[in-house]
């Protein structure tokens, strides 16, 4: 596939079998492209399939259907050595820096593993690389931070270690899954700024997963909105904030403090998104204030509403 994109999901579908119920489809025919050095934010409420989609893109999960492409090559089903090589290029940062670090191991141990496993470094070279990434994420003097255990670090420092670990293989693509949502509000900006500067210095592409449109607007070039396992809108960040074309995006904006679209959330925002395989029509229909008869029957396709701006809603026809 000749492509100007670094990473692409093509009809990416992830299904989880359930006993005595139709399969749960956490990611349903998702099409998403991320260019080199681009940040795409993936926003949506809890349970909409964001983490699952991110995990599939870095191949911590194998898709049930559809494809994942990286740098012109298909990586959907690669295993063994090929998957290991892919993980040099594609990494994930998780929401909870405490849970993602082993309490019994030092910072140096956490970082040595990927340097050994992914880059086959040892001895002096590995020690140098370790100091370099610690410096890159602002954990200096490195001699002190190397010997620390996770419980000796603040939440922000732990997330820096997790970011350093993701950087160890020398990736060009990182999925950052709500990387600041477990941190004190006072620390969030500095971690987002760090991610921004790393992008600049290392030429990284990000999929930035969040339920917070304000930080998506700050960090991302484009914003993709997910609901009920489906992508429902994608646009350049400012276009999406200024001229949302999907009723769900409008509701998300209404819930964002300081937004021009601020307003109360309707009562119908109570139920969780339905991910069941036998769901029909628009995923947002059960909660949509503008729902029409046809919405409950057939899933609307993505419609281009402006340059680079698409939304899956019949109201845009
Ligand atoms: N390994 C799994 N097995 C079964 N169900 C899962 C698994 N991982 C996620 N799910 C389900 O998939 C749905 C989407 O989850 P997730 O991708 O974590 O959404 P989000 O990140 O948007 O909150 C949820 O209903 C979740 O329970
Ligand atoms: S397709 Fe129908 S139910 Fe879905 S968001 Fe548009 S108007 Fe609402
Ligand atoms: Mg999640």
Note the topology.
Layout: E1 5-18, E2 21-35, E3 39-43, H1 50-57, E4 65-70, E5 73-74, H2 80-89, E6 90-93, H3 107-117, H4 123-136, H5 142-146, H6 155-167, E7 173-177, H7 185-202, E8 205-210, H8 213-219, E9 222-227, E10 230-236, H9 237-242, H10 247-254, E11 303-306, E12 309-311
Parallel strand pairs: 3-8, 3-9, 6-7, 7-8
Antiparallel strand pairs: 1-2, 1-4, 4-5, 9-10, 10-12, 11-12
Structure description:
This protein has a single domain (5-266), classed as 3-Layer(aba) Sandwich (Rossmann fold), CATH 3.40.50. It is built from ten helices and twelve strands. The chain starts with a strand and ends in a 6-residue tail after the last strand. An eight-stranded mixed beta sheet has the order 6-7-8-3-9-10-12-11, with helices on both faces. The protein has a four-stranded antiparallel beta sheet with strand order 2-1-4-5. By secondary structure, it is of the alpha/beta class. The longest helix is centred in the middle third of the chain and has 18 residues, at 185-202. It binds adenosine-5'-diphosphate (ADP), iron/sulfur cluster (SF4) and magnesium ion (MG).
Key structural traits:
10 helices, 24% strand, Rossmann fold, 32% helix, alpha/beta, single chain, binds iron/sulfur cluster, 12 strands, four-stranded antiparallel sheet, 317 residues, binds adenosine-5'-diphosphate
């Amino acid at each position: 596939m000749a492509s100007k994109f670094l990473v692409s999901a093509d009809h990416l579908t992830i299904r989880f079998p359930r006993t005595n119920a139709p399969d749960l489809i956490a990611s349903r025919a998702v099409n998403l492209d991320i260019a080199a050095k681009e940040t795409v934010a993936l926003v949506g409420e809890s349970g909409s399939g964001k983490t699952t989609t991110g995990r599939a893109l870095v191949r911590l999960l194998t898709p049930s259907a559809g494809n994942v492409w990286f740098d012109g090559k298909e990586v959907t089903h690669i295993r063994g050595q090929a998957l290991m090589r892919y993980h040099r290029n594609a990494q994930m940062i998780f929401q909870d820096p405490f849970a993602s670090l082993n309490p019994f191991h030092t910072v140096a141990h956490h970082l040595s593993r990927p340097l050994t496993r992914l880059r086959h470094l040892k001895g002096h070279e590995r020690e140098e690389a370790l100091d370099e990434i610690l410096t890159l994420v602002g954990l200096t003097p490195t001699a002190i931070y190397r010997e620390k255990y996770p419980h000796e670090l603040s939440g922000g420092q732990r997330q820096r270690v997790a970011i350093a670990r993701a950087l160890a293989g020398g990736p060009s693509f990182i999925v950052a899954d709500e990387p600041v949502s477990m941190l004190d509000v006072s620390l969030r900006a500095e971690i987002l700024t760090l991610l921004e500067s790393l992008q600049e210095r290392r030429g990284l592409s990000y999929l930035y997963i969040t339920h917070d449109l304000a930080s998506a607007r700050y960090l991302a070039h484009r914003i993709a909105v997910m609901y009920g396992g489906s992508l429902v809108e994608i646009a350049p960040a400012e276009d999406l904030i200024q001229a949302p074309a999907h009723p769900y995006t409008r509701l998300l904006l209404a819930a964002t403090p300081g937004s021009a679209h601020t307003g109360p959330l309707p009562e119908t925002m109570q139920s969780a998104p339905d991910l069941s395989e036998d769901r029909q029509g628009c995923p947002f229909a059960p909660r949509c204030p503008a729902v029409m008869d046809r919405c409950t029957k057939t899933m609307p396709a993505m419609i281009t509403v402006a340059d680079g701006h698409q939304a899956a809603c019949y109201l845009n026809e």
